[in-house]
């Protein structure tokens, strides 16, 4: 099987490459237009915008060869943007035309009853599947979605497009296409490579079919799917690990209290406060712990490098190696934090926050987390309301710190004061939480 992988040059596609290797499949990258002639199966994953994807393919001379490849009847699997480019157009980029295989357009979610983007784990409804499973998809499973634009499901208003719909899902009261399948084309709006074992099952099922079977899926009957009272979202578990260098220079997962991550030495005679004089708390290696959390059922993983603000991120190779290694072991969303900011290398080379984030995305991260930079961004926005906000694929992490006050405190933060519960070691304490920056070293008056 000549399995090829199409990367239009945006975002993180390393996760899907890792998934294919995990499943034991070899593949080649589409580098030139001639590579399409060698492919007998093609996977096109993608994150980013509809317009940038189509424009990038066109500028590289790959858009028309992609169209010819699909028209040839050879198997095609599109993920997220790889599915959306099959449509005629998208309101995200009105002037850009898609491949036009599916006669419908991609439109923005209605944000009247929900937040946009849609980001989370949804169940699906398979169409015309008596056993509630097809091509590895299961109605009992949940899959990871992250997008602001969708193709609505309208079997009466657009019956031709409805014949392409393989499964639907729901966000708020909107029913939209979760996957499409017809003839040689299969596509998912969600990310199977980030949906854990349920997603790997889909990829494996598609690749395990014969190429002739993957090229002859029949049209789907038009089946009504009115909105349900509630959407198919589910609660999930996110495992977050603080990573820092220990005294030997190794990256370890640690924990602490009020940013103190060292083991406590016994209290000195005549004192009651233990001193932080010991070694950095070592809970284990980050990659090994990430793999353990994934195996135990974690749905998302966060690795926060809490010392990278002291170093140039582009010279912080151990953390990049951690990201690459973790992305080969876990197949759920991976968030990386620490040092995602404009910086200057020791040789004077300026690096933008976008360049730093891009390096982590290419290493296998799906999102980056900012803490101090989020505080600074909000302060700039408050000073200048026209200031741009925080971009997509960014997680904002707020670092709080206790500020202790008297139990009788009646100052400006009295509405935020928390008092310790009776019978606990905090019983006689009261405090409010202060926003901080720079790893807890800078406090704010809010």
Keywords:
TIM Barrel, eight-stranded mixed beta sheet, 27 strands, globular, alpha/beta
Written account of the structure:
The chain is an alpha/beta fold and 446 residues long. It is built from 11 helices and 27 strands. The strands form 7 sheets. Strands 2-1-3-4-15-14-13-8 form an 8-stranded mixed sheet. Strands 17-16-18-19-22-23 form a 6-stranded mixed sheet. α8 (286-295) packs parallel to α9. The chain is globular, with a radius of gyration of 25 Å. Heterodimer of HisH and HisF. Pathway: Amino-acid biosynthesis; L-histidine biosynthesis; L-histidine from 5-phospho-alpha-D-ribose 1-diphosphate: step 5/9. InterPro entries: Aldolase_TIM, Class_I_gatase-like, GATASE, His_biosynth, Imidazole-glycPsynth_HisH, RibuloseP-bd_barrel.
What share of residues is helical? 10-25%
Q: What number is the mean pLDDT?
A: 87
Unreliable stretches covering 5 or more consecutive residues: none
Q: Give the count of helical stretches.
A: 11
Q: Please compute the radius of gyration using only Cα atoms.
A: 25 Å
Work out the count of structural domains: 3
Q: Given the C-alpha coordinates, what overall shape results? A: globular
Under CATH at level 1, the class of the largest domain stands as: Alpha Beta
Strand order of the largest sheet: 2-1-3-4-15-14-13-8
Subunit structure: Heterodimer of HisH and HisF.
Family: Belongs to the HisA/HisF family.
Region (Disordered): 211-232
Keywords: Amino-acid biosynthesis, Glutamine amidotransferase, Histidine biosynthesis, Hydrolase, Lyase
């Amino acid at each position: 099987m000549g399995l090829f992988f199409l990367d239009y040059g945006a975002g993180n596609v390393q996760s899907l490459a890792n998934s294919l290797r995990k499943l034991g499949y070899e593949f080649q990258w589409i580098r030139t237009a001639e590579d399409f002639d060698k492919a007998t199966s093609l996977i096109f994953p993608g994150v980013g915008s509809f317009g940038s994807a189509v424009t990038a393919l066109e500028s590289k001379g790959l858009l028309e060869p992609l169209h010819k490849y699909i028209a040839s009847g050879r198997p095609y699997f599109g993920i997220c943007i790889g599915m959306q480019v099959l449509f005629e157009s998208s309101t995200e980029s009105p002037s850009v035309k898609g491949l036009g295989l599916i006669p419908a357009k991609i439109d923005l979610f209605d944000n009247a009853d929900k937040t946009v983007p849609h980001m989370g784990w949804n169940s699906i409804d398979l169409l015309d599947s008596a056993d509630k499973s097809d091509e590895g998809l299961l109605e009992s499973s949940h899959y990871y979605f992250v997008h602001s634009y969708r193709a609505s499901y309208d079997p009466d208003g657009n019956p031709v497009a409805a014949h392409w719909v393989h499964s639907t899902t729901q966000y708020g009261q909107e029913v939209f296409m979760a996957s499409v399948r017809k003839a040689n084309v299969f596509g998912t709006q969600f990310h199977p490579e980030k949906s854990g074992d349920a997603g790997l099952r889909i990829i494996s099922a598609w690749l395990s079919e014969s190429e002739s079977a993957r090229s002859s899926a029949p049209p789907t009957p038009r089946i009504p799917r009115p909105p349900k009272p509630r959407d198919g979202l589910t609660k999930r578990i996110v495992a977050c690990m603080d990573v820092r260098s220990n005294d030997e220079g190794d990256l370890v997962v640690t924990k602490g209290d009020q940013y103190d991550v060292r083991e406590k030495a016994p209290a000195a005679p005549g004192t009651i406060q233990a001193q932080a004089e010991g070694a950095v708390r070592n809970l284990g290696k980050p990659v090994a712990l990430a793999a353990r959390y994934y195996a135990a059922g974690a749905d998302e993983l966060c690795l926060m490098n809490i010392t990278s603000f002291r170093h140039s991120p582009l010279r912080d190779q151990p953390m990049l190696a951690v990201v690459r290694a973790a992305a080969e072991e876990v197949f759920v969303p991976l968030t990386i934090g620490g040092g995602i900011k404009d910086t200057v290398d020791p040789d004077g080379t300026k690096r933008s926050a976008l360049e730093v984030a891009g390096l982590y995305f290419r290493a296998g991260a799906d999102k980056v987390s900012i803490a101090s930079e989020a505080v600074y961004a909000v302060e700039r926005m408050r000073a200048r309301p026209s200031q741009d906000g925080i971009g997509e694929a960014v997680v904002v992490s707020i670092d709080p710190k206790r500020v202790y006050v008297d139990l009788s405190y009646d100052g400006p933060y009295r509405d935020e004061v928390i008092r310790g519960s009776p019978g606990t070691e905090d019983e006689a304490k009261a405090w409010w939480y202060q926003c901080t920056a720079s790893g807890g070293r800078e406090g704010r008056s809010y």
